[in-house]
Amino acid sequence: MVRVLVATSRPKIGSAGKTGTWRFRRPVIDYEKCNACGYCWMFCPEAAIVFYEHMEKPEVNYDWCKGCGICSDVCPRDAITMKKERLKRRI
Amino acid sequence: MSKLVQKFGTDEWVLPGNASCPGCSAVLALRHILKVLGKDTYLVIPASCSSVIQGVYPRTASAIPSYNVPFASAASAASGIRHALNVVGKKGTVLAFAGDGATYDIGLSTVSGAAERNEDIIYVCYDNSAYSNTGVQKSGATPIGAWTTTTPTGREGWPKDMPLIMAAHQVPYMATASVGYLNDLQRKVKEAKDIEGFRYIHILAPCTTGWLFPPSQTIKVAKMSVLTGFWILFEAERGMIRLTGPSKRLKDPSKREPLEEFLKLQDRFKDITPEQKKALQEWIDFQWTIMHWKMIEYLEKQP
Amino acid sequence: MGKIELLRGNYAASYGAKLSKVQVITAYPITPQTSIVEVLANCCASGELDAAFVRVESEHSAMSAAIGASAVGARVFTASGSQGLLYMAEGVHWAAGARLPIVMAIVNRALAAPWSVWTDHQDAISMRDSGWIQFFAKNNQEVLDTIIQVYKVAEDVNVCLPAMVNLDGFILSHTVMPVDIPEQEEVDDFLPPRPPGAPYELDSNNPMTYGNIADPTCYDEFRFSMHEAMQYSKKMIKKTTREFERKFGRNHGALLEEYRCTNDAEIIVFSMGTMAEEAEIAVDILRDEGIRAGSAKVRVFRPFPTEDIIRLSNGLKAILVIDRNLSFGLGGAVASEIKASLYQEKRKPFLRERVMGLGGRDVTAEIIAEEMEKTLGMVEKEEEVVIYE
């Protein structure tokens, strides 16, 4: 049988691999200061900050977060700081 | 529960873990556009950053049906898809998501043709003012004095005014937007969704890789581009222009931030010469002069 | 049995598309193809044909709009030629790689520079590596019939490749010939609607991305699959030709159309397009003189009918190949491909190649007969072959 092979790709989270390994700084949310305004969630280009209906405060998904720092820049309460990522040695 | 989250919705059509640069405003723009347009959207992607952002076969970061097309073809492929959807009876919005290179330069005739035929598509140009995907070469949208790999001493000459070109086609809806003002962007996409015919949305998308600023500054650069008057937020229906968002109060030059506030954020303007800076300011003032006359025209036509 | 009308080749192409119930037509005019799109515009405006007619602003857009429309699952038709075909070259390759069964009528016209509006095959030949199935028609009846047949071949679930139907500019496009136009019901019976989901359909209920980057570990397989489909399409073309003959009583040949290529033939002339019709008259002239001549029209140039050519050349004294195209620095395309097909054969006939008819220069039956006689003369003397005088 002749194959008709077409370049069809399926939607997949992490299509470029584990992009969390790209970062060298990670955002850390100080939940005391956070007032759950949603700005960090809104401005994250990666949708790496999750904030579903049932959640009280947003959370960073470190699997995909690339460490750009936009969330830290836009937070009106300065509740997000970019901490140095612990680069693990890979053998 | 945040009001913002309720307003924008938690559906994600651009999946995380894609190949975009950290801090990419194109992906941010697409994320929010698709939140408005939803599941029944057919995405047309010409050669651009987005063709790479999707990722490599067999995976893609797009959760809606997407079609990759040649560089110049976004608007015409989108037209073909639109007509075929009508013929086979499928409903949905057709969205062409093209960069400034595909819109201003190689695809200009295509976009113009689709606008003239009033094709029922939404054409979004995300403008990072250079051929970013191939390594930041100068495009028709590059501003005066900006560094690119093909204008190492700063771009000479004026860029094309694509929003006005599109408005001059008398299309049903034309709008400029910025990723710094996502409420304004959402409103414009919502308005475009309900109109039939050729809708054009032009989003200034600051590019951390091409404009040479740290990725965390993307939103700041986007906001400053509007607040200095460099990027004007307006919309037009059939060529009748009106200002929107922060740009409304910036008609008065004294209300604008000094241009330096925008230039100092980006290393691509690091070596801008005084003549180029002067020319850039002249260009900005000229855009506002046009806006001034367009606003008078708009106000005259009001009942 | 349909009604017989006097039709120009362009009208025959339009009627073929109309009878095939195409759903989206993307149209940009170029001499000598213009009347194809004009007739279809009339058909759509009058309601005779229920199709979307997109008046694009360039041939490049014509092909990209066709690609978009075909990706959704519609049956698409477009037409071009010469400069237009080259302007859409990027899209031509794209459509084949995207496995979309678009059908395009190409009205062959010589390429600039310098400007010429008359016919030759250089434009179609320049697209031979694109992955499109290429048919060449020799009369207007064949134009109409081939378009209907080609949809069946291209849309087959095992083929899924675009196809072009070539007709000589002005010689066919603007010349009036009697054409038997089949009834719509008969064509509907022969040609069902496009099979759904072949090769894919853009659908928001099944979101996929088509054509994103394929790295070196997999790109190769996609391209080989196109080659496999092309080879398979030879079978489909033969099958479809037989079915068409059974239903409509007409046969224009499958891959080759053989005329008086008897077992004892001494010389066969290979040509494409209207030259093949002239070649048949030349064969009759020679047969009357006692020379056992035959003509083989290369109806399908891609996929190249290698097996049929090998079969025909068995026991043959000489072959004359007439090309209406020229690959500068090598020679005519049909000749070089026939030579390539025969390379492995232990006994090859003497082969003479001639490039004629470029830019619309007339190639008559008398000229072809003369060339064939010359060829037979050269066989005895084993003269050196000069392809272009």
Strand order of the main beta sheet of chain A, please? 2-5
Spans of chain B of 5+ residues with little confidence (pLDDT < 50)?
none
The major beta sheet of chain A can be summarized as: 2 strands, antiparallel
Computed structural class of chain B:
alpha/beta
**What ranges of chain A have pLDDT less than 50 throughout 5 or more consecutive residues?**
none
CATH architecture of chain B: 3-Layer(aba) Sandwich
* CATH architecture term of the domain at 28-84 in chain A: 2-Layer Sandwich
Helix-residue proportion of chain B? 25-40%
Report the total helices of chain A: 2
Q: For the largest beta sheet of chain B, what order do the strands appear in spatially?
A: 3-1-4-5-7-6-8-9
Explain briefly what this protein structure is.
By secondary structure, chain B is α/β, with parallel strands linked by helices. Chain B has helices spanning 3-8, 25-37, 49-53, 74-88, 100-105, 108-116, 162-168, 182-193, 218-227, 259-263, 274-301, and strands spanning 41-45, 59-60, 66-68, 93-99, 122-127, 173-178, 199-204, 234-237, 240-243. By secondary structure, chain C is of the alpha/beta class.
Chain-wise SSE layout:
The complex is a heterotrimer of chains A (91), B (303) and C (389).
Chain A: E1 8-11, E2 25-29, H1 39-43, E3 49-50, E4 59-60, H2 70-74, E5 80-84
Antiparallel strand pairs in A: 2-5, 3-4
Chain B: H1 3-8, H2 25-37, E1 41-45, H3 49-53, E2 59-60, E3 66-68, H4 74-88, E4 93-99, H5 100-105, H6 108-116, E5 122-127, H7 162-168, E6 173-178, H8 182-193, E7 199-204, H9 218-227, E8 234-237, E9 240-243, H10 259-263, H11 274-301
Parallel strand pairs in B: 1-3, 1-4, 4-5, 5-7, 6-7
Antiparallel strand pairs in B: 6-8, 8-9
Helix pairs in contact in B: 2-8, 4-6
Chain C: E1 3-8, H1 9-19, E2 24-27, H2 34-46, E3 52-54, H3 59-72, E4 76-80, H4 82-87, H5 89-97, E5 103-108, H6 122-125, E6 133-136, H7 140-154, E7 163-168, E8 176-181, H8 184-190, E9 209-210, H9 219-248, E10 256-259, E11 267-271, H10 274-288, E12 293-298, E13 300-302, H11 306-313, E14 318-323, H12 333-342, E15 350-355, H13 365-381
Parallel strand pairs in C: 2-3, 2-4, 4-5, 5-7, 6-7, 11-12, 11-14, 14-15
Antiparallel strand pairs in C: 1-8, 6-13, 10-12
Helix pairs in contact in C: 1-2, 1-7, 3-5, 7-9, 10-13, 11-12
